[in-house]
Design goal:
The chain is α/β, with parallel strands linked by helices. It has twelve helices and 13 strands. It starts with a strand and ends in a 5-residue tail after the last helix. Residues 208-315 form the Myo-inositol-1-phosphate synthase GAPDH-like domain. One of its GO terms (molecular function) is inositol-3-phosphate synthase activity. InterPro entries: MIPS (IPR052199), Myo-inos-1-P_Synthase (IPR002587), Myo-inos-1-P_Synthase_GAPDH (IPR013021), NAD(P)-bd_dom_sf (IPR036291).
Length: 376
């Protein structure tokens, strides 16, 4: 059994740029370590990784074997060059020359009106059916076994296209955006029948607004307090936030983020007393994301309290820190011939999983899945 995990990426944007450059960063750090390694129990923890190893798989076992995009300045280029092409902003370090060439993907609904002039998409010169065959051929030729969906928010038709291709090519599917596939019963059953694993939906950042908001909401519940009103306002300066200025593309995103927080509470908050979602695009912020969270409620003797928090993070490092685990968990499922939505991985890593759990419980479930004491 090959230890390499062959991954195909759908959307060579900022999120993926952070993932591939981050893996290279850790590889270089590993090469600088002394050749004599202490026992695993005494090995130094690698900062930024939730799991240095998952089953037999280390972070440097991930290999990007195929890539698909719609940007004219990315299609046809080697992956090592495409990740630095405009409008990408992640530029942490140079990459070694890659044999993987970015192939043309169908545009479908993947480009919003606000980002079209920044991305300059290809005009698909062939039919969707023919393009699908070309993509299928590339996946099979490269031995790709896991597809990571990094399309822009609102790409429902395009995401369903790639979900069907994952089923057709027997690739595990990691859905990083809020189009409901893993959490949709019909889609989940399709992956289960095909014995193909899927993790989704909508990536939950490593230290992001939603995970922090969830933990605070759970804290209030566990300490006997109520939450009467709350908001989470997010702003950023990359194409992700520019794309989300188009309100029609935001419906599932708001549902995903809101349910991720309210799932931690026993009592529902009235719709008019909660707002969670992307709020605006501020160009000079670049890949920086600012989140503003406020909670108002009551504690002992109905005495009111309020809490405010400002979070300042790099949006793309946040995503990469989660996907690096999702890939290895999907590979474990492939090795064990487990199909359908991976309940534990989805609950721990995604905002809108098939079933919500507390983050503490979801982490326990993931550890049980890694050790093989649980199949889900």
């Amino acid at each position: 059994m090959s230890k390499k995990i062959k991954v195909g990426v759908i959307g060579v944007g900022n999120c993926f740029a952070g993932l591939i450059q981050g893996i290279e960063y850790y590889k270089r750090r590993k090469r600088l370590q002394p050749t004599h390694h202490p026992p695993a129990s005494r090995a130094p923890k690698i900062i930024g990784l939730m799991h240095q190893k998952i089953g037999p798989y280390n972070f440097d076992d991930i290999e990007f074997s195929s890539a698909f995009d719609v940007g004219k300045n990315k299609v046809g280029k080697g992956l090592d060059r495409a990740v630095f092409a405009s409008p990408n902003l992640v530029n942490w370090l140079k990459l070694l020359k890659s044999k993987t060439i970015v192939k043309e993907a169908p545009v479908l609904d993947g480009i919003g009106i606000f980002v079209e002039n920044k991305i300059n998409p290809v005009k698909n010169s062939t039919s969707i059916e023919k393009l699908e065959k070309e993509v299928e051929k590339e996946i099979k030729k490269t031995g790709t076994e896991i597809l990571v969906n990094y399309l822009p928010v609102g790409s429902k038709i395009a995401t369903e296209f790639w979900a069907r291709l994952a089923l057709k090519t027997k690739c595990a599917f990691i859905n990083c955006i809020p189009v409901f596939i893993a959490s949709n019963r019909k889609w989940g059953e399709k992956f289960e029948r095909a014995r193909i694993p899927i993790i989704g939906d909508d990536i939950k950042s490593q230290i992001g607004a939603t995970i922090v908001h969830r933990v605070l909401a759970r804290l209030c519940r566990d300490r006997g307090a109520t939450i009467d009103r709350t908001y989470q306002i997010n702003v950023g300066g990359n194409t992700d936030f520019l794309n989300m200025k188009e309100q029609e593309r935001l419906e599932s995103k708001k549902i995903s983020k809101t349910e991720a927080v309210t799932s931690q509470l026993d009592e529902k908050i009235k719709p008019e007393n909660i707002y969670i979602g992307p709020s605006d695009f501020i160009p000079f912020l670049g890949n920086k994301k600012l989140a503003f969270i406020r909670i108002e409620g009551k504690m002992f003797a109905d005495i009111p309290f309020s809490l405010e928090l400002r979070l300042d993070v790099d949006d793309k490092a946040n995503s990469a820190g989660i996907v690096i685990d999702a890939i290895r968990l999907a590979k474990l499922a492939l090795d064990r011939k487990i199909g359908g939505p991976l309940i534990s991985a989805s609950a721990y890593l995604m905002k809108h999983p098939p079933t919500q759990f507390t983050d503490e419980k979801a982490r326990e479930m993931v550890e049980e899945f890694i050790t093989g004491t649980s199949r889900q």
